[in-house]
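Researcher: Sequence recovery benchmark, item below. Answer with residues only.
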């Protein structure tokens, strides 16, 4: 059974729940202009829809280098060979708060595998982001991307994270494999996407 078939039922329930949570923003202006100016006020809200990219249709590897909130360098090149989960969020977004526990759970499940999680905060300064991470016990590093949009720009022209929250899964070559546009409502969808990339089951 294909990945798309196996997650169809989970997607259906996630869409219904995420629609109830949607509402961080409403307009759909040129997002690349926002990245350059360090603002995300025109991000649209997602509905939990999942987009998958067949292995043969994936674009070039994503390339970015940024500092996390501990001052450590995170680069796409250094993460090659791992499945990478990029979660785009900001502290005042209700769906971001609702999905935090599920992201933590999937992170912990794959802590001993070749999987890396990176949070990408698209709006906040360090203090606000740190308070969110403490409240929700976020166990993985966060990049503050509001000022220069480094990570967001790296995904422009591909399947971009043009909603908050959004979760992008990169394959082991650093290419965009899947996107959840809206809150991750439960573990099952993200578990499936990550596991299929680890096992090489992507269609």
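Model:
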């Amino acid at each position: 059974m294909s990945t798309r078939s196996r997650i169809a039922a989970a997607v259906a329930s996630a869409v219904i729940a995420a629609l109830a949570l949607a509402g961080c923003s409403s307009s759909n202006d040129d997002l690349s202009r926002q990245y350059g100016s360090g603002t995300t006020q025109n991000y649209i809200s997602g509905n939990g829809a999942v987009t998958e990219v067949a292995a043969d249709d994936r674009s070039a590897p994503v390339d970015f280098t940024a500092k996390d909130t501990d001052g450590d360098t995170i680069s796409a090149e250094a993460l090659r060979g791992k499945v990478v989960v990029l979660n785009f969020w900001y502290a005042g977004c209700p769906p971001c708060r609702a999905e935090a526990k599920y992201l933590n759970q999937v992170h912990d499940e794959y802590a001993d595998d070749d999987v890396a999680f990176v949070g990408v905060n698209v709006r906040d300064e360090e203090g606000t982001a740190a308070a969110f991470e403490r409240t929700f016990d976020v166990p993985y590093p966060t990049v503050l991307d509001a000022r220069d949009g480094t990570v967001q720009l790296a995904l422009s022209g591909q399947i971009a994270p043009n909603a908050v929250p959004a979760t992008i899964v990169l394959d082991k070559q650093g290419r965009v494999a899947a996107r959840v546009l809206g809150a991750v409502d439960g573990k099952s969808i993200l578990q499936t996407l990550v596991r299929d990339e680890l096992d090489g089951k992507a269609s």
